[in-house]
Amino acid sequence: FQEKSYFVKGRAFHKAMEEFYKLSPGERTPKLLLDTYRAEILANESSYAVSEDMRSDLVLGDKALNTYWGTYFNDTQIPKSKTEYEGRVELPYVKVPFEFRIDVLCVDTDEPFILDFKTGTSPDMEKLEMFDLQLLRYVWAAAVTGFPVKKIGYQIIKLPRSSKGDVTVDRKWVYPTKKQVAYAIHDLAMVVEEATRDNMLLFPNYKSDCEWSCDWFQLCMTSKMGGDAKTVEEKLFYTGDPPDMKMIEEDANDNS
User: Fold this and answer.
1) Given phi > 0 = left and psi -120 to 50 = alpha, else beta, which region is 4?
2) For residues 98 and 89, is the Cβ–Cβ distance under 8 A?
3) pLDDT(250) > 90
């Protein structure tokens, strides 16, 4: 299976940020950000159809990470943190495993928090605040595994659609209520229950105009590609631009 280059780019940004925040502020440097990103891109050269696309992503990464450093520098408001914190916990009601992967989990502070990175050309802070359930589920998962948090942070790195455009960064903190967290978990449990029962009232119907933010997105796509929809792996949810649906459907048809 050949991974698509847009996944490589997104992972490279996440890898750079995670290596950055696992250090104390005094140890963080722009060189660390740039070197980590470049190393991840170069290690996956085979994912690029043409070398020019890879060079474009390298230039874009330099631009984005220099903008990030220029905005936050060594980011003293975020202490040394756990990064790539992942685990597996059982969803209530349906007894299905929930796999999670938290970008940054900071517990050595008065207000423990989760920070999540959103990259791509279209992340929207207003929509994240209104509709995102992923971080609310991470709050629950962190608490279940012994790390209760008080707030969640959305860190957007919005990329231009061409190399001539500007990179913008934005960060917002949200204090979720217990009711919001409970709803997010109950909602996912009900989706899993409906998706895995024999006499379904709703049928996954994956199409090219499906939204990646939909809870059914991964379940429907996995089912279409012949996978096991009973295992919900939150870590597979894509957090940047929606992938090329036609390309995914072509892959699915090729593998059928």
Assistant:
1) beta
2) yes
3) no
- Residue 161: the pLDDT is 85
Structure tokens that stand for 49 in this block: 């159809």
Separation between Cα atoms, residue 242 and residue 156, nearest integer Å: 15
Residue 23 CA to residue 76 CA, distance in Å, equals 11
50: amino acid identity, one letter = V
**Amino acid letter at 102?**
I
The angle formed by the CA atoms of residues 88, 90 and 93, to the nearest 5 degrees, is 160
Bridge partners, residue 174, by sequence: 152
Return the percentage of the chain with pLDDT > 70, whole number.
75
Which H or E run includes 193? helix 178-196
Long-range contacts (CB closer than 8 Å, 24 or more residues apart) made by 181-184: 181/136, 181/137, 181/139, 181/140, 183/136, 184/133, 184/136, 184/137, 184/140
Q: Chain-centre distance of CA 123, in angstroms?
A: 11
Token digits for 54? Answer: 């890879």
Q: For 189-217, write each residue's pLDDT tens digit.
A: 887 777 666 665 555 565 666 665 676 66
CB atoms within 10 A of CB 186: 13
Q: Which two tokens stand for residue 46?
A: 């085979």
Question: Residue 33 is encoded by which pair of tokens?
Answer: 């950000």
Amino acid in position 197 = R
Query: 196 is written with which tokens?
Result: 């895995």
